Amino acid sequence: MKTKLHWLATVAVTAGLAAGLTWGAPVEAGKADDTLNWSTNREIAVVDPYYNNTRELVIMGHMGWDGLVLRDLETGEIKPLLAKSWKWVGDTAIDFELRDDVVFHDGSAFDADDVVYTLNHVSNKDNAVLTLRNVSWIKNAEKLGSHSVRVNLHKPFPPAFAYLSNAVFILPSGHYDNAPILAEGKPDYGAVKPVGTGPYKVADVKAGEYVLMEKNDNYFADSAKGQPQIGKMRFRTITEMNTQIAELMTGGLDWIWDVPKEQAERMDGTPALTIENAKTFRISYMAFDVDGDSGTDVFTNKKVRQALSHAINRESIAKNLVGPASEVIHSACHPDQFGCTQDVTKYEYDPAKAKAMLAEAGYPDGFEFDIYAYRQREFTEAVIGDLAKIGVKAKLNFMQYRALRDIVRKGETPINHMTWGSYSIPDVSAVVSHFFTHGPEDPAKDPKTKELLDVADNSVEPDTRKLYYNQAFERIASEAYWLPMFTYAKYYAFSKDLNFKASSDEIPRFYTTKWN
Amino acid sequence: MSNKILEVQDLTIDIPTPSGTLHAVQKVSIHVDRGETLCIVGESGCGKSLTSLAIMDLLPKKAMRTATRLELAGESVFEIGERRMSDIRGNRMSMIFQEPMTSLNPAYTIGDQLTEALRRHRKVSRSEARDRAVFLLEKVGITAAASRLGQYPHQLSGGLRQRVMIAMALMCGPDLIIADEPTTALDVTIQAQILHLLAELQREFNMGLILITHDLGVVARIADRVAVMYAGQIVETGSAAQIFSAPAHPYTRGLLACIPIPGKTERGAHLGAIPGIVPSLVGKMSGCHFASRCPEVQQNCTSAPIPQFEALDPGRSVRCLQAENAAMRSAGQEGVA
Amino acid sequence: MIQFALKRLGVAVLVALTVSILSFSMIYLSGDPAIALAGEGASEEDIENVRRVYGFERPIIVQYGDWLLRALQGNLGHSNYLKADVASVVFERLPTTMILGASALIFALVLSIPLGVLAAIRPNSMIDRFALTVAMIGQAMPSFWFALTLILWFGINWRLLPISGTASWQNFVMPSIALGYYVTPAVMRLTRAGMLEVLSSDYIRTARAKGLRPMTVLFKHALRNAIIPVVSLSAVQFGFMLGGSIVIETIFAINGLGFLVWESILRADLPMMQAIVLVLSIIYILLTFLADLLNGFLDPRIRVS
Amino acid sequence: MTDATKSPSVPQGGSILSSGLDDVLEPSPGSLMRKRVFGHTGLVIGGGVLLIIFLMAVLAPVISPGDPYDQDLSRKLIPPIWHDSDKVTWDHPLGTDLLGRDYMTRLFYGARISLLIGFAAMLISGVIGTTLGVLAGYFGGKVDMVVNFIITTRLSMPVVLVALAVVSLVGSSLTVVIWVLGLLIWDRFAVVMRSATQQVRGLDFVAAAQSLGCSTRRIILSEIMPNIANHLIVIATIEMAHAILLEAALSFLGLGVQPPDPSWGLMIAEAKGMIFFDAWTITIPGIALFALVLSINLLGDGMRDVTAPENRN
Prior knowledge:
The complex is a heterotetramer.
Chain A: H1 2-22, E1 35-40, H2 55-64, E2 69-71, E3 78-80, E4 83-88, E5 93-98, H3 112-123, E6 138-145, E7 148-153, H4 160-166, E8 200-206, E9 210-215, E10 232-237, H5 241-249, E11 255-257, H6 261-267, E12 273-288, H7 302-311, H8 314-322, H9 351-360, E13 368-373, H10 377-388, E14 393-398, H11 401-409, E15 415-420, H12 432-435, H13 447-457, H14 462-479, E16 482-495, E17 498-499, E18 514-515
Chain B: E1 4-17, E2 20-33, E3 37-41, H1 48-56, E4 64-66, E5 69-72, E6 75-76, H2 82-88, E7 93-96, H3 110-121, H4 126-139, H5 145-148, H6 158-170, E8 176-180, H7 188-205, E9 208-213, H8 216-222, E10 225-230, E11 233-239, H9 240-245, H10 250-258, E12 317-318, H11 321-336
Parallel strand pairs in B: 3-9, 3-10, 7-8, 8-9
Antiparallel strand pairs in B: 1-2, 1-4, 1-5, 5-6, 10-11, 11-12
Helix pairs in contact in B: 3-4, 3-6, 4-6, 6-7
Chain C: H1 2-29, H2 33-38, H3 44-54, H4 60-72, H5 86-121, H6 126-140, H7 143-157, H8 173-199, H9 202-209, H10 214-226, H11 228-243, H12 246-251, H13 257-266, H14 270-298, H15 300-304
């Protein structure tokens, strides 16, 4: 036995030494190594802007690829990027003149064939890009010359440039042709080695663990994105927020976000860190089961919905739990979106009034119901606490997004407390038209609202759209189909070495980031 | 006397228990000569096994051992330290236990377990040790001894295992063997063989043998001398002949009445029993331990500690006031006559 | 022997099959996998498209049969989420999991066996009490709390060890301790109980009567017999640590199988989940089989029967 | 042979002591049991702490300074009174949580839920595991094979994983958590009860009952069960502690008991974010949970020692 223990110890020591030798390479970190380490909780395996629909890939998409145009974050103005200029041809076609001085990471030159190939590939439903709505408005693309293309639309689509600047990245022609074929006979587009024209190129990917990007030294000179500054950017998946914070505090990471308010506030004193609270496009809302599908019919009563709306102290939740950049909203849209208005019926916090209305509606002693949520449990807990004060007992069902969305779509939730990010699209159609045009998540299926939205959605005339959207928002507010709660604010925490500016669309532009 | 292999004087074992000190063995004195067989008899719990473990220094830790003398072949081995003691154990004295089924380690071969003591105590090579093991296995009557070395205990019967245990005890050629009820767990037919074997080997190697047993039949057959223990004390010692022909202690007489001794008990005779239970040995004891069950108990039996009375015959002693009185009386009568 | 192995294999196959049916139906009973795959906030159109492309509209039985048929041909399929061959992902992550599991087990054994032995040699002594305390703390402290406490001291305050990832062997120190510590109490108690029992056995008395040195008695005669149940327990625990270390893998950002299967369940990545569940159950059965073999080596009585 | 020389009970292969001492030390059952129970430090401490926690749970409405659900975001995260901070107040001796709820009150109410989870999950798993184990052990053969298969299948799926999967997908509530844990942790019951039953089944009195023509039901309930009860108690305490800890792990991953009901596991999990900054938020419920699990384990160990004298050391 004694010898066996010795043997074990020897093996352990040898294994340790061997491991030390092979894994001994220290991870580059921080300014000294010219490597920006950033992290989120999501696993990234596919580095492709179309076959991965995570926000991380939108961020990396802007780093590795370029769209035809770029939206200026300050002014909202659309600027040229891969396209030098463009013009509408009628309501359903746009002609683009392309740059002729751009090369892909693999050295091939960029021209009209690449745009035509990319747009025709992604708009074809059979190729199953993950977020179809980003591209489904494109009918096809035609080559007009070596550096000019025409993009045809199915029908007039006002936010076309919002999508073109944010979600339509150009790949080299024939990019997916050599995609490996799966056993099922389908090509695996996600497995193709990423190539783009962007300021950073993908250097190394370990599925689910990290993505390493390196500066593209041949990035075209006068790009609206500017020139890349930092040598390397390493994305790592760290699921646990405490671990992210620990790594940030010890220099293993340079940048994290989504830090809960309390932790962010307490980190604020740390000398090496910058803490920033920034607006996002995500809103929090509660949807009432207006048509009574869930089996609880209390919320078919408008008075009850309004009473609950008065009972919840949204201001307090926004300020105490979310962050200073969060604001209470009153209509079903984000204030920064085109067409959004706060000039609708408002439900100020007034528990006494709420209680009175509840009594009026026939529930002087309150009632019980199930509330469903999936994100930031403490926010929903606060709602439950507020409701308890007017005698309404809400039982929380906290679920994974997938499971919850399924039952929300089936209409089985008396109240669901959800969030919506509008795909960072600065147009109200990305939120209100999604929820109130009789889709499965429409809580009311009100014909009047749909009518108004249909007009707004199909017009290209900004004033017409605004007018009809505003009417729709007023109807949603006065009928209290939804209780819009507040805009999310995100805490960013990053190294003092980093010159970083947060943007409200929740897409950190790392390609503009420099070391201080 | 150089012939004395073992001499123990006033061996006392105290064991602390939650309810008081247990006086498990009290002032036991025994000695064994070379070539002599001493049988310690007594019922279970009388302290005879503890006595043997005390001699081997194998008592559990909380048991406290004291003695005025504990000598092996004239050399005092009393409190010489665990390390030195382990040089003696298995070497100059060895022990055979009651349970052959469980006394061998199931994980190792017979050969391994036989040779390890020899290789521990003597500078011998592996093959020498092996040869000795084969020699002894044959000695204890195991056939195909060489092939047995590779076998595991569970592959052997109880009788064979006890033979292996005996061979194991003999490996280093000890001066003294202590056998603690070596046949109790065996079939009756095998018991006789094993005892016979022990006696034979003892003669052949001229060792001292302490045989602990509660089987008086066994005693009658192989004992040279006998020590009868009761409740932690030796109540009577003497040669086998003396004990069997003229038991002096009422307890010894009771024991003998319980058991048919070949050639001594007449056919059809009534077998007796000793009524009552063994007294608790916890706390302070006074008087004769057997008093509560003794048919001849007198008033003075319970008042004071009973000393060993040695004047009966040479080499004989008894711990009983009545026996002493009787002896006095008979001595007096002889004097008168 | 061969018959024994074949029988074990049969059980393994049956268990794996049962587990795969259970997990497959569980995912289906719990909501639409298309929603998970389409991602948060996906539109109706996206979800429909995903459902069509991935064939989720077919009956469950057909989908399962389809999967099983291909699995039997050695094709574990393609991850819906990671867009990679399932088998290659599993085998890429298996070493990480194995290293973590093995180092955690080694830590647990190195800590608990000596403590258990010492505690058994001197019951109710200081060392026994110490061992008991170690075991009790291991038993009573939620593992995530313990893990975060390790990070706080070794990672942040003292900066002795890297906090997350798998970049170097130092990265495995804290997770191994956090994971292994949880196993320590069981192993220690079993070692202690086994040693106590063995030390009071007749053959130990025999060994001592032979004059063997205390160390020989302890290690050669006692530990070998006391360790037998520990071997079985270690095998089972090792199996658990491979798949059940989700919490530890999450905290230390270690991309192992446990974390992957958990994420796959959340993402309804059926082929991936099925493959891992399959691999885990086979590994578990292999481990118990190995433990039986090792026990047969340690205890000749088992070997013969 | 007669009484005098027949040894009453020489234990087979017992300890060194047992060959000579045990029959001398025969205990008188009643007083000795009392002495053992109160002389066993672990048992007394474990039982005592558990009793305190139990009383805390039962008397929560009486002894709590406030209402466990009464939130006020303006008084969130007040530290406990021993902290050097101007926010501390005797209104909240243990401070307040993230939503401004009184921590002491939640701790008292949390005891109810943690105890309930542990006890109920233990009960469910105990019934399942004991039934399977006893059936397998008693009948052997095919029944044993089937039960063994079920046990192996169950063991080849990691508990935490399955619990997480189920809870995350069907939604978590107190009832779901209890059932899921109960349906998952029966394996130890089954394994131990199986081997214990096998042992008892081989004993003479079972054979005697069988030969008397007792029904199987009767034999299992009145001959076998009483003899494996002490194993049952020990496993029950282990699994109770196990269930409480598993609930904490589920809570860590956001899938334990649902707020606003406080369980200690949930309180620890909710506070985990503050571990680097306000460690007391995790330490207070952590120590409570620690004490609970520890006391259950001590109690189990103690009961094993007391009910099975051969395990004393």
